[in-house]
């Protein structure tokens, strides 16, 4: 249980940071969490030193080695701590490829549509269509991967669960803000029930942010952007 | 009894080339299937329904897509020399840098090759920013992988011949000796690496079919001719330039 020398530079509001925290929790790894004001244009010296290429959170610091990019960090945690419970990635190479594929789909194809919605002006209809279509694809993936069990990873939370689950806070903000019912039990029953289970899991329940807190945060960042000249 | 391995790809895709190099490094026998992306085969649509792109690796009937995912799969599913390092921290660095290459390095470089005017200028600027970061990363090393080519060198394969192509197209030297001495050395080291050179024989029937050396000689072609045997990339470069004249399109129209 001794997680000496483990720090996370992140933010309570960032899904990418959340997924690192959830994974460390799953593995019962103690860590020091350092909140960074990542949305400000002046990044802390500490962040710039830890991630000079991107200057972004999250960064995992383990025994003074800095690892950046959330999916890279997740795989690092799996490989560096081998006696802390099951790996979040499956052990079979083909299942691992499938897990990586869905993580990449969620991060690179599906979630960007939700971000598009935030700044869309006029074509919201098409974007919402894409979001729903993506959810149907993910529902199918859930059915295939879970094989009737609770999570994409089976009995335990796995890689895809953490990746998609870390977005649940923001998904609820979008639902509230746009009056959408994304996690609709009639359309995507598997995912809807999975979402409830994920959010109440010990490793995730104190990490996935509350909707109202996130909404407040979002408004605050928007205000900062409008007020500052560099945006 | 043996494994059945097929790779669906296109001759001009750097994402396919890197998978071919890795299969070769690992010593995996495979069947190559050329896809026509303007006329996608029903099989391609079936094995990669979400992206409809190449490369697709099919191992004993199981399809795997996305080149970096394919590469990790090959490393894990087949025996042979390791493609990624063994140490978790070194692995995390390899994954970080391959992602950097694909997110910040390749797109502007690819775009700069294919686009025109202001779009090309903007893409060039972005490419230069990424090259500066890579220059820093290669300092003091023969290859990104150390003394021998590693996953990052293979992923950066397109840089080795794509940059000379871009320089020929724009008539501007990108990799200047002043700013990028280490990257320049890397391009030479990479193109002259015996494995890389051997991999693309000029007698390859695919090379003959797609790369008849007509039209203006590209820088890449000239580079390739100096090597023995001539480098496939040289022909790629010549064909690339040729097709530029026939394809005044933007990146969205170019099949990946």
Report on this model:
The complex is a heterodimer of chains A (231) and B (256). Chain A is α+β, with helices and mostly antiparallel strands and 231 residues long. Chain A is 56% helix and 7% strand. Chain A has a four-stranded mixed sheet with strand order 2-1-3-4, with helices on one face. In chain A, helix 1 (15-26) runs parallel beside helix 3 (70-80) and helix 7 crosses helix 10. Chain A is globular. Chain B has helices at residues 14-26, 42-47, 67-77, 88-114, 117-138, 151-155, 157-170, 181-192, 194-199, 205-210, 219-225, 232-246; strands spanning 5-9, 31-34, 56-59, 62-65. Chain B has a four-stranded mixed sheet with strand order 2-1-3-4, with helices on one face. Mean pLDDT of chain B is 78; it is low at 201-231 and 245-256. The radius of gyration of chain B is 18 Å and the shape is globular. With 256 residues, chain B is an alpha+beta fold. Chains A and B meet through strand 4, helix 3 and helix 4 of A and strand 4, helix 3 and helix 4 of B.
- End-to-end separation of chain B in angstroms reads 34 Å
Low-pLDDT runs of 5+ residues of chain B are 201-231, 245-256
Q: Biggest β-sheet of chain A, characterized? A: 4 strands, mixed
Instruction: Note the overall shape of chain A.
Output: globular
Write down how many β-strands of chain A occur, each being a DSSP E stretch of 2 or more residues. Answer: 4
Quick structural summary:
The complex is a heterodimer of chains A (231) and B (256). Chain A is an alpha+beta fold and 231 residues long.
Characteristics:
heterodimer, A: 231 residues, alpha+beta, four-stranded mixed β-sheet, 10 helices, B: 256 residues, 12 helices, 4 strands, 7% strand, globular, disordered C terminus
């Amino acid at each position: 249980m001794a997680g000496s020398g483990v720090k996370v530079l992140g933010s309570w509001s960032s899904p990418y940071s959340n997924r690192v925290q959830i994974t460390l929790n799953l593995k019962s790894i103690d860590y020091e969490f350092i909140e960074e004001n990542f949305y400000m244009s002046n990044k802390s010296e500490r962040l710039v030193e830890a991630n000079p290429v991107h200057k972004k959170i999250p960064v995992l610091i383990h025994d003074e080695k800095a690892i950046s990019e959330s999916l890279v960090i997740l795989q690092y945690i799996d490989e560096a701590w081998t006696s802390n419970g099951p790996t979040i990635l499956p052990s079979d190479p083909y299942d691992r490829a499938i897990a990586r594929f869905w993580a990449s789909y969620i991060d690179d194809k599906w979630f960007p549509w939700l971000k598009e919605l935030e700044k869309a002006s006029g074509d919201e209809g098409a974007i919402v269509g894409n979001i729903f279509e993506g959810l149907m694809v993910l529902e199918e993936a859930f059915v295939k991967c879970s094989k009737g069990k609770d999570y994409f990873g089976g009995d335990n939370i796995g890689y895809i669960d953490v990746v998609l689950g870390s977005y649940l806070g923001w998904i609820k903000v979008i639902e509230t803000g746009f009056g959408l019912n994304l996690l609709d039990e009639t359309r995507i029953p598997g995912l809807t029930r999975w979402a409830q289970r994920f959010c109440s899991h010990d490793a995730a329940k104190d990490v996935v942010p509350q909707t109202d807190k996130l909404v407040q945060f979002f408004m605050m960042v928007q205000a900062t952007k409008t007020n500052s000249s560099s945006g | 009894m043996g494994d059945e391995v097929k790779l669906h790809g296109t001759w001009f895709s750097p994402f396919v080339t890197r998978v071919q190099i890795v299969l070769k490094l690992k010593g995996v026998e495979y069947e190559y299937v050329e896809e026509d992306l303007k006329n996608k085969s029903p099989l391609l649509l079936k094995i990669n329904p979400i992206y409809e792109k190449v490369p697709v690796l099919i191992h004993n009937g199981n399809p795997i897509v996305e080149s970096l995912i394919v590469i990790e799969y090959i490393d894990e599913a087949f025996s042979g020399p390791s493609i990624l390092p063994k140490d978790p921290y070194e692995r995390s660095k390899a994954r970080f840098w391959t992602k950097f290459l694909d997110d910040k390095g390749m797109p502007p470089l690819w775009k700069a090759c294919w686009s025109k005017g202001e779009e090309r200028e903007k893409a060039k600027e972005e490419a230069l920013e990424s090259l500066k970061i890579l220059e820093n990363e290669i300092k003091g090393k023969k290859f990104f992988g150390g003394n021998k080519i590693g996953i990052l060198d293979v992923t950066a394969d397109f840089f080795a011949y794509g940059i000379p192509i871009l320089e020929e197209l724009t008539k501007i030297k990108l990799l200047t000796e002043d700013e990028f001495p280490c990257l320049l050395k890397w391009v030479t080291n990479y193109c002259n690496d015996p494995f890389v050179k051997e991999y693309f024989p000029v007698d390859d029937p695919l090379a003959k079919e797609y790369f008849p050396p007509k039209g203006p000689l590209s820088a890449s072609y000239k580079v390739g001719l100096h090597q023995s045997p001539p480098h496939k990339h040289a022909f790629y470069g010549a064909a690339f330039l040729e097709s530029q004249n026939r394809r005044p399109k933007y990146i969205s129209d170019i099949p990946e």
